[in-house]
Amino acid sequence: MEELETRIKQDGKIINNEILKIDSFINHQIDVNLLNNISKYLASNFKNITKILTIETSGIAFAIGVSQCLGNIPVVFAKKSKSKIVDEKNIYTARVHSFTKNVDNVISVDKRFLSNNDNILIVDDFLAEGNAAFGLIDLCHQANSEIAGIAVVVEKRFQGGRERIEHAGIKVVSAASIDHFENNTVVFYNEK
Ligand code: 5GP
User: Could you write out the DSSP letters of every residue in 30-87?
Assistant: First the structure.
């Protein structure tokens, strides 16, 4: 998506040649016009979705945006912290390594919210190594839900997430695809 690529070039900051900071329009302050356009683009690649699955926190806004483009289907977000009021028997859990924080999180979803009748679209802000995506895929498998694909705002191809997911037979769509960083600038996949 050209609009997103232009904005990343203009306002994104690269940290340690590995992390893209886009907190002025995606991850902290959100440009809602841009969010709506990204959501439309991501949603246009999928049909017959019954539910969207994301992970707290940054995925939630985009999951809602995509849902609105697909007929306001339900959005479920996996939780990263344990709640004292939830019985372990009633949740699906998966372990996810956080790339940016270098810690493992156990993510969970209440069993009531994923089912074998669901065709799930997984939505997230970033795809790097694919760990968050595989945690969400794991939750869908436990619920015997179909997975229609993964839609992300930004993917960083050099970290291998897309390859791993496509190797598992799952479709990946991104609104901006970064091939690599060079001299503190972003090189998109389509301008290699
Ligand atoms: P993965 O699990 O695919 O390795 O990384 C995806 C998760 O890590 C995303 O949910 C996102 O929160 C975070 N992440 C990975 N790379 C970046 C990055 O370059 N910038 C930001 N802001 N978050 C990232």
Answer: --HHHHHHHHHHHHTT--S--EEEEETTTHHHHHHHHHHHTTS--EEEEBSS--TTS-
- Residue bearing tokens 């695809």: 177
36 CB contacts (<8 Å, ≥6 apart)? 65
Closest ligand 1 atom to 55 CA: 10
| Residue 138 CA, ligand 1 centroid: distance in Å | 18
Whole-number Å distance, alpha carbon 14 to ligand 1 midpoint, is 13
- Taking residues 68-94, report their average pLDDT: 90
Tell me the torsion sign for CA atoms 145, 37, 129, 105: negative
Under DSSP, is residue 153 helix (H, G, I), strand (E, B) or coil?
Answer: strand
Q: What is the mean pLDDT of residues 140-160?
A: 98
